[in-house]
Amino acid sequence: MPDIDWSRAQFPALRLKAGPQPAVFFDAPGGTQVPQRVADAVADSLLSANANLHGAFKTSRDCERIVREAHRAAADFLGCDSREVVFGPNMTTLTFALSRSLARDLSAGDEIIVTKLDHDANHAPWKALCERGIVLREVEFHAEDCTLDLDDFQSKLNAKTKLAAIAYASNAVGTINDVEALIRRARAAGALTFIDAVHYAPHGPLDVRRLDCDFLVCSAYKFFGPHQGLLYGKAEHLERLRPYKVRPAGEDIPERFETGTQNHEAMAGVTAAVDYLAELGRRTDGALSERPRREQIAAAMQAVRAYERGLAAALVKGLLAIPGLRFFGIREPERFDRRTPTVAVRIDGLHPRRIAERLGRQGFFVWDGNYYALNLTESLGVESDGGMVRIGLAHYNTAEEVERFLTALGELARSAR
Ligand SMILES: Cc1ncc(COP(=O)(O)O)c(C=O)c1O
User: Fold this and answer.
1) Is residue 395 part of a domain?
2) What is the pTM of this model?
3) 181-213: per-residue pLDDT in tens?
4) How far, in Å, CA of 285 to CA of 290, rounded?
């Protein structure tokens, strides 16, 4: 069990109010809050190491240290070598850059698999390659529980498949895909794999070596850090692929993919976010104090996973008891190893925006709309009518918040009948 009281005390934003009521942050899939130490690290970097890299003076060397430490921290978070971590503005921009780079080795008629469960950032960069004659194959999902259609995935794999781009978890309905199995199948067909772990990253341990994926992306602002994208790529690919870059920039990895001047202050924040998780791990299991940071992070994320599963069970049970509520995604608690605590709902007679507004006025911060999972909301037939209300929890939320939320939503639903 993670030490939630300690965790909550780390996040100053959790003390904010919305009018007279405490703010309840159920907007985690859109971006999580940050511990004090993340804000401090960003500020320190700007105030004491604000220089560009490779200079002959102290602040430049200090900035290089920040960059090195951030690569090490991210490598511990992902389970890889620090040379295999590429930083960039956000996942979307990194994915567009990688897709263009990969396309240099593709030919017209080559195929890429994407899924209809995914955020558009794992669709549009691959779709853009259709201009070069590359063919996109879109995998369907089962509407009744929003799980991927594995038979459809298999049927779309063939000798022309060069890449499978798959979400680890859906940012809209919380489904965790069986990425291990999907990666195995893609690999057996000779395809590379690109995993979008943006939504999954704050909810469970990541281990790119065990997954054996070729690429994986995430975004630190979804796992308690600042706005900073991260791309893992196997060293062999980062060395082999040809990035679009300026000539004077280095040819070593990962620099050759880190175009332009990076957001050094955000990198300092990434290290602090990873260190926060490591400390959470040590508090979960004191025996880990002398163990490597990676093990501490893994323990934290296992504990987070178990804790969030309990919150999700209470949330989903309460939601399903509300008359007139339509629930999207996996609902059976015994299948919750296949979902994050992110759920999407609609209520008969109430537009999602009106629900989010009314909840917002009571201090409950939830998203409405499509959250860029456009293929999903279109397939579910809700896109033209406001999408869905998304309730997205993180480990800093509590059972008491869930209970109060369910009461508020229940009253709101009753008022619509
Ligand atoms: C699953 C998923 N993929 C990709 C993205 C895009 O990430 P970024 O904002 O870092 O470009 C998001 C953002 O919400 C997301 O939830």
Assistant:
1) yes
2) 0.98
3) 999 999 999 999 999 999 999 999 999 999 999
4) 11
